[in-house]
What we know:
38% of the residues lie in helices and 21% in strands. By secondary structure, it is of the alpha/beta class. The protein has a seven-stranded mixed sheet with strand order 1-7-6-5-2-3-4, sandwiched between helices.
Amino acid sequence: MVNLGAPVLSEGPYIYELWKGLFRRFLDTNNCRCTVYVVTPYVDSEIMKDIYKIVLDAESSTKILMFVRIRCNTYGNEDINAVKENAKKKLGLLESKRDVIIDKVDKNIRIPPHTFHAKFLGLLDARDETNSGAKVLVTSANCTVWHYKSFPKDGLCNLDSVAYNEMSVGNFEKHFVRPLQRN
């Protein structure tokens, strides 16, 4: 699915394009037995706006679960509710589209009971019992403009790690999902 090979260090804009492309592709599965996981401790309204736009464009039945910290935008000192509202304002959503976003994304945002700093985008396909039923892009980049869209300073962009892996549904649940849900 992704020609990434071994884990690498890369600039934020490249990682974000990869992340958005995979998010679109994961939603294209359009299957109610699949779940897309968006996990990041930090997200700002600009990236949340992009998440909303991708979800609206996809018109997918694939379930989305998002895990964030309650105070998720340290740069803007905003909590998740402010980030969501600011993102919706930036999109200028009609009421019907707001309802779709609330239903598909906002109702499925989880705040883990403990601090976490994991960042990944994952697809769990419950129909696939093979060793590739789950796909995951792991990165050190937060879902913020500062990490993904920062402009070069002195010719340098923010560097973060990124790795793509496929694994069994059981391994994904054990190593990625359950740790976020335990008390």
